[in-house]
């Protein structure tokens, strides 16, 4: 049986040389880093500068395309309130649209109380402030409350939406036709 012997001569020397080379390179690059002269500009460390560097490349906005403050009660209901108050919603203890029996005790508290509850929410977490939509204005919430309560037996007068408050531009009055001189 023939055995092949591999020569191991020089392997210890190679290991020492490679190890020394790695150590020298490590010290060299560490020295270069230490004396590189990198200085931090205080203006680059300001909150505004840091925020601009870490902000997202794009911004996502989920919107219904209607300017906040101009939505009608029905639009607010369709966007936010219907999640809990639609007639087929399954959220417990939230009065459903058109259910007079569920709305009657709430309507009895008065319009202002209903608005305050919707704006502030309930401490027990049953309803978040502004129905969970912080973009809603107080007037929009009042319009939504009036819309829902009025569908269930109330007769609340909602603040008009800006498009409802301004009458349509009237056509200019016709100037009397010139009459020929007599």
Structural notes for this entry:
This protein has 182 residues and is an all-alpha fold. The protein has a domain at 73-161: Cytochrome c-like domain (Cytochrome Bc1 Complex, Chain D, domain 2). 45% of the residues lie in helices and 0% in strands. It has helices at 11-34, 47-54, 73-85, 100-109, 111-120, 138-150, 162-165. The chain is elongated, with a radius of gyration of 37 Å.
List strands and helices in order, with pairings:
Layout: H1 11-34, H2 47-54, H3 73-85, H4 100-109, H5 111-120, H6 138-150, H7 162-165
Helix pairs in contact: 3-6, 4-5, 5-6
The helix/strand series, from N terminus to C terminus, equals HHHHHHH
The number of helical runs is 7
Beginning-to-end CA distance, first to last residue: 143 Å
Low-pLDDT segments: 167-172
Shape: elongated
Q: How does the helix and strand content classify structurally?
A: mainly alpha
Q: What is the fold named in CATH at topology level of the domain at 73-161?
A: Cytochrome Bc1 Complex, Chain D, domain 2
Helix content: 40-55%
Radius of gyration: 37 Å
CATH second-level architecture of the domain at 73-161: Orthogonal Bundle
- Under CATH at level 1, the class of the domain at 73-161 stands as Mainly Alpha
CATH homologous superfamily (4th level) name of the domain at 73-161? Cytochrome c-like domain
Mean pLDDT: 81
């Amino acid at each position: 049986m023939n055995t092949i012997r591999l020569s191991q001569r020089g392997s210890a020397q190679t290991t020492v040389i490679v190890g020394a080379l790695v150590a020298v390179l490590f010290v060299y690059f560490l020295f270069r880093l230490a004396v590189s002269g990198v200085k931090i500009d205080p203006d680059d460390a300001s909150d505004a500068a840091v925020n601009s560097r870490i902000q997202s490349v794009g911004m996502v906005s989920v919107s219904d395309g209607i300017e906040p403050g101009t939505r009608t009660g029905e639009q607010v209901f369709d966007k936010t309130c219907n999640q809990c108050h639609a007639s087929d919603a399954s959220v417990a203890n939230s009065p459903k649209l058109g259910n007079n029996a569920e709305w009657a005790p709430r309507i009895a508290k008065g319009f202002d109380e209903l608005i305050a509850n919707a704006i502030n929410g309930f401490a027990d977490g049953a309803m978040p402030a502004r129905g969970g939509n912080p973009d809603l204005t107080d007037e929009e919430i009042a319009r939504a409350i009036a819309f829902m309560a009025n569908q269930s037996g109330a007769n609340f007068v909602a603040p008009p939406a800006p498009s409802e408050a301004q009458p349509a531009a009237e056509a200019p009055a016709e100037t009397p036709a010139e009459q020929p001189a007599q």
